[in-house]
User: Which sequence fits this backbone?
C-alpha cells in the first residue's frame, strides 16, 4: 500500500529535496534543542549566542526531575493508562467492527450510522458534567477515570470494520460455523488473528493519543502520585523560573519512551495512517 | 486536537452475514453484546454529559452548594461578558492561524513526497510524524523557550539581522502566532500523510499523459492532484475546525505566570480555557456549562459551514 507512485516521469528537482529537508529539520530541531537544554542548564539556555552542542549535565538534571516530582510513578501511570486503552481499543473495536462487518442483526445499518455520527460530536465541551459523573462514580483522582472513557471509540470501530470486511472472506467464517464454532469462537479464534496487524496499529494510535492527553487528566487528577507524565511536566513547568533545564529535562524524559517506541513501530504507524486514509 | 484518521460515511458495502446454524438466544444477542461497550461508554461519558451541559447551563450551579434555576440568565450574562467575546475572538484567530498554514504546508509536502524516484521517502515520512508522538506539554515548553523575548533562539536570529525582539508570550498577535506554530508543528505531518495516501491512489498514467501534453509541475498539481484530494481536504478542514476551536493545552502552557487566563490581559485565552477557568477555578459550573453550550454551537456551526463551503469548491477548469 505504501508504494510510491510516480507523479511524472521526470527526475526529482533539487528544490524538492531542499524543501523536504527543511521540513525534516523543522520537525527534528525542537527535539534536539530540548535535548541541548536538558543536558546543559538554565544558564546556557539564557546565553547568547546559544550553545548548540549537548553538555554533560543530563544526569544531574534528570536526578532533579526525579526528586521534584514522582516522575517514575507518573511514567508507570501513563504506561498503565495508555497501555490499557491501546489494548482495550484494539479488542473492543475489533469485536464491534466484526459484528458490523460480518454478523446479521436487526438495526445493524442504523446503529453503524449512529457510530459514525458520534465522531462528529464535540463531546469535549461537556467537560463539566463529565467531571460531575466521574465524581458521582467516585473516580476523581483515579486512573480508571482516564482509562474507561477511552476504551472504545467510533473511529476504531469504523477502522476495524473496514479491515475485517476487506481481509476476511465469508467462506472461512462459514467453514468455522459448520465446524460448530460459536460466534465468539469465530471472532476470537478466526477473525481476530487475521486482522491483528490492523488492530495493532489501532492500538498504537490509541496509545499515543492517551499518552499525550492533557485536558482530561489535568481536570481529574489531584494528587502527585496519580499524575500522568503530561501533568508531571506541567508541575515541573511551575518551577520553570527557577530552572528551565529542569523543565526541559522532564520534557525530554517524558518524550523519550514514545520516541523509542516510534523507532520500532514508526513504519507501521505511517503505513497505518496512510492506509486509513481516503482513497481516490 | 482530538482528531482521528479518516471516516467516510459513503459506500458501505452490504456486509455478508455469518449464518448461524442454530440461532439460540445467546447467538441472537451476541452482535448486540459486541457493540454494546462502545454505546455504553459513549452514552455515559459523551452523550449524557453533553445533554446535561444544556441542563446545567440553566442553573446557578455551585458544585458543593445550591443549584438555583436561573433560566437563560447565564447566556444573557455571557453575551454581555467582555471576557467571553475576547476568548471567542482569540479562539477564531488561533484556529485560523493554525489551520490555514497547516493545510497549505501539508498540500505542498504531500505533492513533493508523491514522486516515484524520491530518495529517502521513508525517512521523510517518518520524520514528519515525530511531532505527532511528541507530547503537547513538552512541545509547549520547548517552543516557549525558543520564542522567548530575551534569550529565545528566534529573537536572537531576528536580532542578528537587525530586527527588534518580539514579545511572543505577552502580546496578542505574538501569543496567537506562537500557539499556532505549536499546533501546526504537531499536526502538519499527520495531515501530509493523509493527503499523500490520497495522491497515491491517482493512477500514474494521468500524470504521464499530462506531462506529455506539456503540463508542468504547477499545472499537474492544480488540475490533477488538487481535484483528487478534494474529499480528504474537506475531511481535514472539518476535523481541524472541530479540534482547532477547542485548543486548550498550548494556550494553558504559554504563560506560566497567569496560566488560566493565558496572560495578564487574557491575550490568548481560548474558549476552552475560559470554560476551564470558570468551571474548575471559579467553580461556577452553570456559567461554565453555558460557555460549553456556546462553544458547541460555534463548533457545529463552523464545521457545518466549512463542510458546506468546501464541498462546493470545484476543481479548477482549464
Assistant:
Amino acid at each position: 500500500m505504501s508504494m510510491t507512485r510516480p507523479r511524472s516521469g521526470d527526475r526529482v528537482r533539487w528544490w524538492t529535496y531542499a524543501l523536504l529537508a527543511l521540513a525534516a529539520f523543522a520537525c527534528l530541531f525542537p527535539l534536539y534543542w530540548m535535548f541541548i537544554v536538558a543536558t546543559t542548564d538554565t544558564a546556557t539556555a539564557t546565553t547568547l549566542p546559544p550553545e548548540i552542542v549537548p553538555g554533560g549535565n543530563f544526569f544531574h538534571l534528570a536526578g532533579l526531575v526525579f526528586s521534584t516530582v514522582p516522575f517514575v510513578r507518573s511514567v508507570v501511570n501513563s504506561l498503565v493508562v495508555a497501555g490499557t486503552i491501546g489494548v482495550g481499543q484494539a479488542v473492543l473495536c475489533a469485536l464491534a467492527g466484526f459484528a458490523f462487518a460480518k454478523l446479521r442483526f436487526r438495526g445493524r445499518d442504523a446503529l453503524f450510522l449512529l457510530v459514525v455520527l458520534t465522531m462528529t460530536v464535540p463531546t469535549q465541551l461537556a467537560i463539566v458534567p463529565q467531571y460531575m459523573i466521574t465524581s458521582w462514580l467516585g473516580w476523581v483522582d483515579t486512573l480508571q477515570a482516564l482509562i474507561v472513557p477511552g476504551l472504545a471509540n467510533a473511529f476504531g470501530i469504523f477502522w476495524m470494520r473496514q479491515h475485517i470486511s476487506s481481509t476476511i472472506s465469508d467462506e472461512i467464517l462459514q467453514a468455522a460455523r459448520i465446524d460448530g464454532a460459536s460466534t465468539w469462537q469465530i471472532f476470537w479464534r478466526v477473525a481476530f488473528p487475521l486482522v491483528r496487524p490492523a488492530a495493532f496499529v489501532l492500538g498504537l494510535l490509541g496509545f499515543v493519543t492517551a499518552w499525550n492527553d492533557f485536558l482530561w487528566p489535568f481536570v481529574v487528577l489531584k494528587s502527585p502520585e496519580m499524575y500522568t507524565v503530561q501533568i508531571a511536566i506541567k508541575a515541573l513547568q511551575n518551577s520553570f523560573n527557577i530552572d528551565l533545564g529542569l523543565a526541559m529535562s522532564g520534557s525530554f524524559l517524558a518524550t523519550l519512551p514514545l520516541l523509542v517506541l516510534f523507532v520500532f513501530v514508526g513504519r507501521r504507524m505511517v503505513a497505518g495512517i496512510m492506509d486509513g486514509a481516503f482513497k481516490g | 486536537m482530538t482528531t482521528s484518521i479518516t471516516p467516510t460515511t459513503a459506500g458501505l458495502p452490504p456486509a455478508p452475514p455469518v449464518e448461524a446454524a442454530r440461532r439460540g438466544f445467546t447467538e441472537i444477542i451476541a452482535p448486540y453484546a459486541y457493540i454494546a461497550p462502545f454505546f455504553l461508554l459513549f452514552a455515559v461519558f459523551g452523550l449524557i454529559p453533553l445533554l446535561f451541559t444544556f441542563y446545567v447551563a440553566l442553573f446557578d450551579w455551585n458544585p458543593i452548594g445550591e443549584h438555583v434555576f436561573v433560566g437563560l440568565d447565564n447566556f444573557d450574562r455571557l453575551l454581555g461578558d467582555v471576557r467571553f467575546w475576547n476568548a471567542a475572538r482569540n479562539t477564531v484567530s488561533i484556529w485560523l492561524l493554525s489551520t490555514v498554514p497547516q493545510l497549505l504546508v501539508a498540500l505542498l509536502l504531500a505533492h513533493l513526497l508523491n514522486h516515484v524516484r524520491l530518495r529517502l521517502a521513508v525517512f521523510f515520512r517518518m520524520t514528519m510524524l515525530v511531532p505527532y508522538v511528541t507530547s503537547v506539554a513538552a512541545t509547549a515548553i520547548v517552543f516557549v523557550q525558543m520564542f522567548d523575548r530575551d534569550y529565545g533562539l528566534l529573537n536572537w536570529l531576528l536580532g542578528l539581522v537587525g530586527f527588534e525582539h518580539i514579545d511572543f508570550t505577552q502580546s496578542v498577535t505574538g501569543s496567537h502566532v506562537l500557539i499556532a506554530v505549536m499546533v501546526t508543528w504537531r499536526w502538519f505531518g499527520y495531515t501530509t500523510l493523509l493527503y499523500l495516501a490520497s495522491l497515491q491512489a491517482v493512477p500514474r498514467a494521468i500524470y504521464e499523459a499530462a506531462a506529455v501534453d506539456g503540463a508542468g509541475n504547477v499545472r499537474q498539481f492544480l488540475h490533477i492532484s488538487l481535484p483528487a484530494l478534494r474529499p480528504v481536504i474537506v475531511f481535514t478542514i472539518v476535523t481541524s475546525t472541530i479540534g482547532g476551536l477547542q485548543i486548550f493545552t498550548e494556550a494553558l502552557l504559554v504563560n506560566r505566570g497567569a496560566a488560566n487566563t493565558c496572560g495578564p490581559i487574557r491575550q490568548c485565552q481560548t474558549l476552552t480555557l475560559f470554560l476551564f477557568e470558570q468551571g474548575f477555578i471559579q467553580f461556577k459550573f452553570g456559567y461554565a456549562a453555558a460557555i460549553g453550550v456556546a462553544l458547541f454551537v460555534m463548533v457545529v456551526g463552523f464545521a457545518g459551514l466549512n463542510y458546506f463551503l468546501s464541498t462546493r469548491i470545484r476543481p479548477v477548469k482549464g
User: Anything to note?
Assistant: Chain A touches chain B through 126 residues (CB under 8 Å). Confidence is low (pLDDT under 50) at residues 1-8 of chain A.
